[in-house]
Amino acid sequence: MGSLKTGMAALLGLLLLLPAAARADAVAPTLPRFAECAGRLVAQMEHEWLLTDPASAETEATLDAVAAVLELMAPGGTVETRAWRASARAAHRRLLSSASFGGADWAGDAARRYILGCAALVVLPDREAVAGRS
Q1: To bridge 18 with a disulfide, which of 23, 32, 38, 132 should be the other Cys (CB 3.0-4.6 Å)?
Q2: b/e for 67-104, b at 16 or more Cβ within 10 A?
Q3: In sequence order, what DSSP letters do the residues of 35-62 get, joined into one string?
Q4: Residue 7 has what DSSP assignment?
Q5: Is-contact 31 81, C-beta < 8 A?
């Protein structure tokens, strides 16, 4: 995880080289997206734990990466980022509940699309490649 955080820190460090106005434009639109994804990923992970789904390990790794980027963008979080996270977490819980316990296939499809979009925000190391280097 250390190299992942280092890579993200380097990327965000490059943003610091931009003029303040350009930096705000580059970071501001992504901050809500990362906060919302962190909330959705928490709800997804909790749901997978409830169902003893082995996919929870990958969801947790994605959450860790998203949370690391979010922490770099808004150290310690803000009232806004916490609100975005909480709102997205509640919305995702409703989708998963409707899909799993209410038979709403559309809700399961929507939840999967959200999680795939969040996973696309970060690059996780290939587990097999990492294990081979140990």
Answers
A1: 23
A2: bbbbbbbbeebeeebeebbeebbebbbebbebbeeeee
A3: HHHHHHHHHHHHHHHHTT-TTHHHHHHH
A4: H
A5: yes
Say how far apart CA 73 and CA 25 lie, in whole Å. Answer: 13
The candidate with the shortest Cα–Cα distance to 67, out of 79, 77, 57, is 77
Q: Are 18 and 96 in contact (CB under 8 A)?
A: no
Number of residues that this document lists for the chain: 134
Could you give the 3-state DSSP secondary structure of residue 75? Answer: coil
Please tell me the pTM assigned to this model. 0.73
pLDDT one-digit tens code per residue, 51-101: 999 999 999 999 999 999 999 999 988 999 999 999 999 999 999 999 999
Question: Helix H segments across 17-126?
Answer: 20-27, 30-50, 56-73, 79-101, 105-119
Distance CA 70, CA 74 (A): 6
Which DSSP symbol is given to 124?
P
